[in-house]
Design a protein that fits this description.
Elements (H helix, E strand, L loop, with lengths): L33 H19 L7 H7 L12 H16 L7 H17 L6 H10 L23 H14 L8 H16 L5 H11 L8 H13 L34 H13 L7 H12 L20 H15 L19
């Protein structure tokens, strides 16, 4: 049962104990509703929190990225933010994660940092503390451990986690990336990327995004080629397919033997391309981005989500939650929603 547009705040106590299934056959909404998107994101994240009691890269982390963009149409309870903060103030006081558990620190750091950018524009003391803590889980090779559940593109290799960590440090406000701890960690991140080349367009896209804020990861020409390659994957209906970013990944195949579905537009692919394009300097009025925005406005589901099929192996289509957050960010980046905070990034230079 889906929540309907309402003025009541969605809370931890009001959501179900078990999440709804995410199905491709859910009907398209009659019209775009920012309020319904907010309600869906609240329900998905708080239900995950109630059911699994953990932070995760596919649901409540991207919620933290995008939910403030919808605050003017639907207030949130603040319970997801509080849950992220409790990792540092409670959980890690009892047992701190070790090097092999870098995943948790990356997810918490990314969620809090993006949320700070979207709200106050300044690092909270807890966020800064988590960012400093991140470096304690960095390996000698510069990488950080990330889960391999065979769920491309997000939960399959360390590369995604390392790019997410680099992006988080790069977007952190108040000059965090220029601190001594961050500079040492960034130098090791560069070493990791030098020794672990990208396996797919999705990998390259993430590096291009990071490189807009941290120098030494990709040249300007490489960045331009990457964004043009992404834009060239646009489908006739205006959207993008997540699977279309994975076709050059040597050896990546679906377990069910089906070919990758590169011809069906989805929320994650469309939202990600628009957000990265805006970050890499493509204007909001570019016809390709505007066509993508029109796809997003026309393809929201009745629950408020944007559907994305698990592109490689069945993961319950949970990437739809990330896709919904990126759809919101894409709309925000092109002025359809207020408050895009990521204009004019400044790169962090390489130090000798």
């Amino acid at each position: 049962m889906f929540a309907h547009a309402q003025t009541d705040i969605v809370t931890f106590d009001s959501v179900l104990d078990k999440r709804d299934s995410i199905d491709a056959d859910e009907p398209i909404a009659e019209s775009f509703s920012a309020k319904q998107a907010a309600i869906y994101l609240d329900r998905a994240s708080l239900t995950w929190q109630k059911e699994r009691n953990c932070v995760t890269c596919h649901t409540n982390m991207p919620y933290m990225f995008a939910r403030p963009a919808l605050a003017s149409v639907q207030k949130d309870s603040g319970e997801v933010r509080e849950f992220f903060e409790r990792y540092r103030t409670e959980r890690w006081k009892k047992k701190a994660p070790m090097e092999g558990q870098g995943f948790w620190v990356i997810v918490v750091a990314a969620g809090l940092t993006f949320n700070d950018m979207q709200t106050t524009g300044h690092l909270s003391p807890i966020t800064r503390d988590v960012l400093d803590f991140l470096w304690t889980t960095q390996r000698a090779d510069g990488g950080l451990d990330w889960p391999d559940c065979d769920y491309a593109p997000m939960e399959i290799d360390d590369h995604f986690g390392v790019t997410l960590a680099a992006l988080t440090v790069g977007i952190a406000p108040d000059g965090y990336a220029e601190t001594e701890a961050a500079q040492a960690g960034i130098a090791k991140l560069r070493t990791y990327f030098n020794n672990n080349p990208p396996k797919s367009l999705h990998h390259r896209a993430m590096i291009a995004w990071c490189s807009r804020r941290i120098d030494g990861l990709m040249t300007a020409d490489e960045r331009q080629r990457t964004v043009e390659e992404l834009l060239a994957k646009q489908l006739p209906d205006g959207g993008w397919s997540t699977a279309g970013f994975l076709t050059d990944w040597n050896g990546l195949e679906r377990n069910d033997g089906e070919p990758l579905d590169t011809q069906t537009s989805d929320g994650y692919g469309t939202g990600l391309v628009i957000v990265i394009s805006r970050e890499l300097g493509i204007p909001a009025g570019d016809p390709r981005l505007q066509k993508g925005i029109q796809w997003l406005l026309a393809n929201q589901r009745q629950s408020g989500k944007w559907f994305t099929r698990s592109p490689v192996n069945d993961a319950g289509n949970l990437i739809s939650n990330t896709g919904t957050a990126y759809a919101v960010l894409a709309l925000q980046s092109c002025g359809e929603l207020p408050g895009w905070p990521f204009e004019s990034p400044t790169s962090i230079p390489t130090t000798n």
